[in-house]
Inverse folding.
């Protein structure tokens, strides 16, 4: 027992205090900024229930998403691995799935914390956003469905929430229209040239007519697609069936919250794992009418407050069912706030990343530093703050330890058990190095050296902000990862986050005597990391992200089928 206590104090304490497998409730908000919550310094949006959760548990101040976009971030969260290991990273412009009828998705051989929970007798549920693929070869094969990744119940959306899901909020594909216009214009004027200049034996009129038809087809296809995209992408599923197409978003958070409550009530006598994955606060923004108010942040503030209400309702349900003392509750965001989101009327539709630079789609701190709150009464201390680097990838090994499940040993895991840090048995993070990817490209490296308070971070390239001098990429709606949208740095840009958390002033060999030593240590770490990567079928290659009509999600069944 003494040896067990010395090497695994968190496990021993858990079984001494609790003596049974804990229930697990994981809540992830979409695009929530770390500066949006009261417990992280916000004083303009009321989040009393989330703030209370932080007071009842441990708050992480350097909690990091493993990627700054939805799809790769969620893949890493579920598997405890960098998304590059599972092929869930973009190779070009697209870094997240934008069609429900794409063939890419989380590979079936990946081990998720839900699969591990099932192996320990847990009932599991995913309620809300999935965004990790659906079909492979035909509509309905559901090869990437949550059921194939360990979830007994799925009630939610296979895709993300988009502007196209609510009429009048614009389209995520609006930037495609200029390119269609170019195709139409080029086809028209080339056709005119063919009619005017090419002699009849060369078939000038036939070429011209063909080009006109190509231009007309391109315009027509885009207009039809733009009109139908809401019905194609914005679907609500219960397990394998579509129950709403397109879904009504206005009361969707309330419906999903009630679904979560129903799941907890039905499984109150056995261990369960619930992953409540909010569609809010991704655009298009929405909120239940009864929660709307004319606050300083408009509908964005209303959406945050609705998420806060849902968190409070879930925690209160655990209390009512006498499950709170044996339930780990965790809250986070998949990445930072999306700073490019401004409505056509100029209304700000994004949150705050606090003092941290930039936002979603970048590896500046504003894009990857996210809320991290964990509460397990009777085991985790109340009101503790951990100011050490932690990652979304840490959830899988942490949950594995609490559930008593064996870690998968046939693959490289990148997360670490958080319990020693949460309990105060360890004072330093197990993450000496962390690697930050922009799609498939290694973008930055973080180093927290032993016996040092420094938090070094080096960028190999950075996004070109538009307009210049800002912290967002307004022209492209998200920051991209390839030329001409990035600036490469040699030597890399170096920051010490312990002294400059806002990444305002890069260090140089002149201003930082340890510059060469830090760069050498990071270069060696990168070499080791790259050597650990094994080939994986890229799930974000062009052929896997394109819209494929034969994979389109099926028709809805009669009735909502909701509980």
């Amino acid at each position: 027992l003494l040896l067990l206590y010395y090497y695994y104090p968190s496990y021993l304490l858990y079984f001494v205090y609790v003596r049974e497998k804990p229930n697990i409730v994981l809540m992830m908000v979409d695009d929530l900024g770390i500066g949006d919550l009261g417990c992280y310094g916000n004083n303009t949006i009321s989040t009393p229930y989330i703030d209370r959760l932080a007071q009842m548990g441990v708050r992480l101040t350097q909690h990091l998403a493993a990627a700054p976009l939805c799809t790769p971030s969620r893949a890493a969260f579920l598997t405890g691995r960098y998304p590059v290991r599972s092929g869930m990273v973009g190779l070009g412009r697209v870094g997240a799935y934008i069609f429900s009828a794409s063939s890419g998705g989380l590979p079936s051989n990946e081990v998720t914390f839900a699969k591990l929970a099932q192996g320990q007798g847990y009932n599991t549920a995913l309620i809300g956003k999935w965004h990790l693929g659906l079909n492979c070869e035909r509509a309905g094969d559901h090869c990437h469905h949550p059921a194939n990744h360990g979830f007994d119940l799925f009630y939610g959306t296979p895709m993300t929430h988009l502007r196209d899901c609510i009429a009048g909020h614009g389209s995520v594909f609006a930037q495609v229209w200029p390119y269609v216009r170019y195709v139409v214009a080029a086809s028209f004027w080339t056709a005119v040239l063919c009619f005017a200049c090419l002699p009849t034996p060369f078939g000038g009129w036939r070429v011209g007519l063909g080009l006109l038809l190509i231009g007309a087809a391109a315009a027509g296809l885009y207009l039809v697609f733009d009109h139908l995209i809401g019905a194609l992408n914005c679907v609500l599923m219960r397990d394998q069936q579509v129950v709403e197409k397109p879904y009504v978003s206005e009361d969707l958070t309330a419906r999903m919250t009630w679904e979560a409550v129903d799941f907890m009530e039905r499984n109150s006598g056995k261990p369960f794992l619930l992953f409540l994955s909010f569609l809010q606060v991704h655009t298009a923004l929405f909120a239940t009418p009864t929660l709307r108010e004319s606050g300083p942040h408009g509908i964005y503030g209303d959406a945050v407050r609705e998420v806060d209400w849902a968190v409070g309702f879930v925690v209160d349900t655990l209390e009512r069912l006498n499950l709170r003392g044996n339930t780990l509750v965790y809250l986070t965001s998949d990445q930072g706030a999306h700073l490019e989101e401004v409505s056509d009327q100029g209304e700000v539709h994004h949150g705050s990343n606090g003092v941290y630079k930039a936002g979603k789609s970048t590896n500046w701190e504003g894009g990857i530093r996210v809320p991290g709150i964990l509460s397990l009464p009777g085991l985790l201390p109340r009101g503790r703050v951990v100011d050490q680097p932690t990652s979304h990838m840490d959830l899988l090994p942490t949950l594995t330890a609490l559930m008593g499940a064996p870690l998968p040993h046939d693959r490289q895991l990148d997360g670490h058990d958080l319990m020693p840090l949460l309990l105060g048995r360890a004072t330093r993070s197990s993450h000496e190095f962390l690697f930050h990817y922009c799609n498939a490209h290694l973008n930055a490296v973080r180093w927290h050296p032993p016996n040092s308070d420094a938090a070094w971070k080096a960028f190999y390239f950075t996004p070109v902000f538009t307009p210049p001098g800002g912290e967002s990429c307004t022209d492209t709606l998200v920051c991209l990862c390839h030329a001409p949208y990035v600036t490469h740095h040699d030597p890399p840009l170096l920051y010490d986050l312990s002294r400059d958390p806002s990444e305002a002033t890069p260090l140089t060999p002149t201003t930082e005597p340890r510059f060469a030593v830090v760069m050498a240590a990071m270069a060696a770490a990168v070499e080791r990391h790259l050597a650990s990567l094994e080939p994986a079928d890229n799930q974000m290659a062009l052929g896997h992200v394109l819209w494929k009509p034969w994979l389109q999600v099926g028709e809805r069944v009669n009735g909502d089928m909701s509980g």
Remarks:
- The mean pLDDT is 89.
- The first strand starts at residue 23 and ends at 29.
- The radius of gyration is 24 Å.
- The CA atoms of residues 231 and 561 lie 19 Å apart.
